[in-house]
């Protein structure tokens, strides 16, 4: 490599260029010695490096090298601090470098459309400003190490059910303003070297072959110059992907895609220029993110392990949210005797399940951390309180009540929340409730009359039926391997909590705007709620919530004053009115004119975290940017700015905005009344919109596709339960029973079986390293449609044909 014999990429053969566009293994790209293009290694993940041993797998089932498990994105977002995300990214990038990873697959930054999405813990926020700027911080940090960051999943990936066979149907304005803006902010601000496409279709076109997304918006409009990498098994047609602007499909499909691309160029269906452009994108990442001098068997040094554990603790500390503190129960005073209750206090749950699961270098638990805390707080005892898997056990509750009721206890700290089965890749939650035995426990503890502090562990909102009966609550999310010591330090007052919620917490699931149609069980997931997602819905309609977007308490008291607006932004004074140093999260919202543009009541457009000493005041500023006043004009197909008087509001959450002022904006849109045909959308009442009003929002009639009676290559294997053939029907039913049995037995989801159930047959061609090709997929589809004998014969014949074709292509590429 690198000598005088090196060829230009353009001079490689069609087959050699095509070979660069698919993986060589589960985690490695293909390189070219002839063109001096190195292979590169990819690895999850968004909150820790999952560098797998051996050939590995994409679901986190195999062993991986120890690495720091940082708090998940849904927790880090509560810090509202992009600089903190950047520090975390720097640590992630350093570990990726040391573990010989070139491309880190993260952060996850899809908008949280509904609280039941099983992967919400991997995503930042329901708002694109928070998601975009937090992601930008992480990306900058990762790439400062010479490691590529690959934000995901682009785009509109909002449910796990049928995730590889789901079509996200969303109107253009909502798509651009809500679901794409976070990615736009991250791409424009941090310039990631790669981006991962999502499994789903977007308005009928698979994301990995969606030219509008990948070329017209991502590359031409935003200026992205990196590689688009498929989610694992997320490529549908290799030829269509290359035409659309997708660069690399993962993992290895063997040489099946190479053969398809070569045939398409030979037939004139694909231009060699497009093939060359995609190969150049892969080569660019390979050279940008090439790690030299690091052995693949290396482990992290002891110094890095210790240093990054401290970073993980700091990130967790800044992300913990104080949600209640009646009678100033917290921080716990020196001399307080504390009963620690809850299985998760002894065996921490600190991350979610799936491809992001990290083999942590060290794991803490709250019981030990409180016991050894140098704070004067005394642990009076521990009680398990509940069965981890949700079984009813009154004896555990009685034991906890006795401990808390005893004269030796002053305060109870109860650790409750969601278990390992509840939040996972491949599986959406079925309820916002935490397990009933835990609710029963908290109610029983509250009845003792002792002060009750709840430490809540969950990656997304939950219902809190006992909230009024407790005295204080900390939401620690999924706080990573150092979350326990961070929580102990907040409880004991060594750290002043400064986190604010990056998503709304409804009182009950039925209050959610999309609760009536989420998740979609059929192919089409129609986003009937339009732009009214999260606080945009609750604030517009006036629905009461448990905690508003942006909410968070502190051991300090803050005030805001002296708002001054100009054309560039807003200035104001933040004061710490207390004797305790702390940090305030200040948020800026806008309320736009109602002439001609359908809008939510208010929209976040900026934020800042301000550290203040006791009784200190600071004058701070939040600048406007290109996203502040814009909307996407459907008729013109471009961004527009509406003329008129805009209200700017500043405060500490979406409901508490003590400062407001007006600014007159000279835009480029003429004033006109909002079309009354929007009906219920005019007031955000999305639960009652009619089909005609949905058609008005989309600009055309929207009807969910009828579930097919004949199965195709893109229908999930789970749908085979309706197959006319006994064989396919039996396979689907067996897999469903197996997943449920494993989940009940182990307390964790069966990720491999879930993946297979959600997988369409065409993915077999993409994930078997050439063992299955398109002809064999057609045979599998025949079996699904009841033609068992014919399908099996074709499957066997296709296998032998495919083996021969693979050998011939491997021989052709042997000297690549």
Automatic annotation (TrEMBL):
> Where does the record place the Fibronectin type III-like domain?
584-654
Report whether Hydrolase shows up as a keyword of the record: yes
Fetch the SUPFAM superfamilies from UniProt: (Trans)glycosidases (SSF51445), Beta-D-glucan exohydrolase, C-terminal domain (SSF52279)
Sample GO molecular function, one term: beta-glucosidase activity
What is the superkingdom listed in this entry's lineage? Bacteria
Residue runs in coiled coils = none
Provide the GO biological process annotations: carbohydrate metabolic process
Q: Does the keyword Transmembrane apply?
A: no
Per the UniProt record, the source organism is Bifidobacterium bombi DSM 19703
Q: What EC number is given for this enzyme?
A: 3.2.1.21
Q: Which UniProt keywords apply?
A: Glycosidase, Hydrolase
Q: What is this protein called?
A: Putative beta-glucosidase
Question: What InterPro entries does the database record attribute to this sequence?
Answer: Cellulose_deg_GH3, Fn3-like, GH, Glyco_hydro_3_C, Glyco_hydro_3_C_sf, Glyco_hydro_3_N, Glyco_hydro_3_N_sf, Ig-like_fold
Tell me its family: Belongs to the glycosyl hydrolase 3 family.
């Amino acid at each position: 490599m690198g000598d005088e014999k090196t060829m230009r990429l353009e001079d490689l053969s069609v087959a050699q260029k095509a070979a660069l566009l698919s993986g060589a293994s589960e985690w490695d790209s293909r390189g070219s010695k002839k063109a001096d293009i190195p292979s590169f290694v990819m690895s999850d993940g968004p909150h820790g490096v999952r560098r797998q041993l051996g050939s590995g797998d994409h679901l986190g089932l195999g062993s991986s090298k120890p690495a720091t498990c940082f708090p998940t994105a849904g927790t880090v977002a509560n810090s509202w601090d992009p600089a903190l995300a950047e520090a975390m990214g720097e640590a992630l990038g350093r570990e990726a470098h040391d573990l010989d990873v070139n491309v880190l697959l993260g952060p996850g930054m899809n908008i949280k459309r509904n609280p039941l999405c099983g992967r919400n813990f991997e995503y930042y926020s329901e708002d694109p400003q928070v998601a975009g700027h937090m992601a930008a911080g992480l990306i900058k940090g990762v790439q400062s190490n010479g490691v590529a960051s690959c934000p995901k999943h682009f785009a509109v990936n909002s449910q796990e059910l049928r995730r590889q066979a789901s079509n996200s149907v969303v109107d253009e304005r909502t798509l651009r303003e809500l679901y794409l803006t976070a990615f736009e902010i991250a791409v424009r601000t941090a310039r990631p070297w790669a981006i991962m496409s999502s499994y789903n279709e977007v308005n009928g076109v698979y994301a990995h072959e969606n030219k509008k997304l990948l070329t017209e918006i991502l590359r031409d409009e935003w200026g992205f110059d990196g590689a688009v990498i498929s989610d694992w098994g997320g490529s549908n047609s290799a030829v269509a992907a290359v035409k659309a602007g997708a660069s690399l499909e993962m993992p290895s499909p063997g040489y099946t895609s190479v053969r398809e691309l070569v045939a398409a160029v030979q037939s004139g269906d694909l231009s060699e220029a497009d093939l060359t452009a995609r190969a150049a994108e892969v080569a660019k990442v390979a050279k940008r993110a090439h790690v030299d001098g690091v052995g693949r068997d290396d482990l992290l040094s002891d110094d890095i392990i210790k240093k990054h554990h401290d970073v993980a603790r700091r990130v967790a500390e800044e992300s913990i949210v104080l949600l209640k503190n009646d009678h100033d129960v917290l921080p716990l005073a020196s001399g307080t005797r504390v009963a620690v209750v809850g299985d998760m206090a002894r065996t921490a749950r600190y991350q979610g399940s799936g491809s992001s699961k990290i083999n942590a270098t060290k794991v803490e638990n709250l019981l030990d951390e409180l016991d050894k805390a140098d704070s004067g707080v005394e642990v009076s005892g521990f009680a398990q309180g509940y069965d981890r898997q949700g079984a009813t056990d009154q004896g555990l509750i009685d034991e906890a009540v006795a401990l808390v009721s005893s004269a030796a206890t002053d305060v109870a700290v109860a650790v409750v929340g969601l278990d390992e089965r509840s939040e996972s890749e491949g599986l959406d939650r079925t309820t916002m409730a935490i397990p009933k035995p835990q609710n029963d426990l908290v109610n029983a503890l509250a009845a003792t009359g002792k002060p009750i502090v709840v430490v809540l562990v969950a990656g997304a909102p939950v219902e809190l039926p006992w909230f009024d009966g407790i005295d204080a609550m900390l939401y620690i999310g999924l706080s990573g391997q150092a979350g326990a010591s961070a929580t102990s330090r907040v409880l004991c007052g060594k750290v002043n909590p400064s986190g604010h919620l990056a998503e709304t917490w409804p009182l009950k699931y039925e209050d959610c705007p999309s609760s009536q149609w989420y998740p979609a069980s059929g192919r089409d997931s129609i986003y009937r709620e339009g732009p009214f997602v999260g606080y945009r819905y609750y604030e517009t309609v006036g629905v009461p919530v448990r905690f508003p977007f942006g909410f968070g308490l502190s051991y300090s008291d803050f005030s805001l004053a002296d708002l001054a607006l100009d054309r560039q932004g807003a200035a104001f004074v933040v004061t710490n009115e207390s004797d305790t140093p702390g940090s305030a999260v200040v948020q800026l919202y806008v309320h736009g004119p109602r002439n001609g543009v359908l809008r939510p009541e208010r929209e976040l457009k900026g934020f800042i975290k301000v550290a203040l000493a006791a009784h200190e005041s600071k004058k701070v500023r939040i600048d406007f940017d290109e996203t502040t006043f814009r909307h996407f004009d459907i008729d013109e197909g471009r961004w527009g700015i509406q003329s008129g008087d805009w209200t700017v509001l500043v405060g500490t959450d979406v409901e508490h905005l003590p400062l407001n002022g007006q600014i007159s904006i000279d835009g480029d849109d003429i004033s006109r009344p909002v079309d009354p045909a929007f009906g219920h959308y005019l007031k955000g009442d999305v639960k009652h919109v009619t089909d005609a009003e949905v058609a008005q929002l989309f600009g055309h009639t929207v009807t969910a596709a009828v579930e097919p009676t004949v199965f195709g290559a893109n229908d999930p294997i789970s749908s085979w339960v309706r197959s006319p053939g006994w064989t396919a029907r039996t396979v689907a039913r067996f897999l469903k029973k197996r997943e449920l049995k494993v989940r009940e037995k182990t307390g964790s989801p069966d990720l491999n079986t879930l993946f297979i159930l959600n997988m369409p047959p065409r993915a077999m061609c993409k994930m078997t390293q050439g063992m299955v090709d398109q002809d064999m997929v057609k045979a599998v589809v025949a079996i699904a449609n009841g033609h068992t004998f014919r399908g099996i014969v074709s499957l066997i014949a296709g296998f032998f044909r495919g083996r021969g074709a693979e050998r011939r292509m491997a021989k052709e590429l042997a000297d690549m």
